[in-house]
Specification:
2 domains; mainly alpha; Cytochrome Bc1 Complex, Chain D, domain 2; Cytochrome c domain-containing protein; electron transfer activity; 5 helices
């Protein structure tokens, strides 16, 4: 189970860093190293949030057919998973790991069409029924990913 940070906690941490940075910049502190470190930390946090918001906004705005082949169709469920689902579900970065859980294709189809928690709903305008059936079958039949350093079967 991964730990989730509440947005208010993250914003509070960012506000604290910025407040301390302001104090340093206003001359309350004469520690140049601390000043540089705090400004760099605030910039890193801002950059990470900007990238996360930008990438997720782009993914929501572009139709999934943009990642399909030149004729607008997908080769198979593995391609849909690799180009769309894997961004959030590989390694459980944003969404849960799906491979190896033997989820029923009907369940996957329902969640994709209706969404659940952080997972947005993907209408037929974003992923057609044939591609959705292919990716649902692929996920339900896929084996679990092996962890780094482990060999399959040992």
């Amino acid at each position: 189970m991964r730990a989730e940070v509440e947005p208010t906690v993250t914003m509070a941490a960012l506000s604290l860093i910025l407040a301390r940075s302001r104090a340093v910049l206003d001359g309350v502190s004469n520690d140049k190293h601390l000043e540089d470190e705090m400004v760099a930390s605030a910039k890193r946090i801002t950059l990470k949030w900007s990238l996360a918001v930008g990438i997720s906004s782009l993914a929501c705005l572009l139709p999934l057919t943009a990642w399909a082949g030149a004729d607008g169709s997908w080769k198979n469920g593995a391609e849909v998973y690799a180009k769309v689902c894997g961004y959030c579900h590989e390694g459980g970065i944003v969404g849960p790991v799906l491979k190896g859980r033997k989820l029923p294709p009907e369940y996957i189809t329902f969640i994709v069409r209706h969404g659940l928690r952080a997972m947005p709903a993907f209408t037929a305008a974003f992923i057609d029924d044939e591609a959705l059936k292919g990716v649902a079958d692929y996920i339900s039949k896929s084996a679990a990913e092996s962890k780094e350093g482990e060999e399959n079967g040992r």
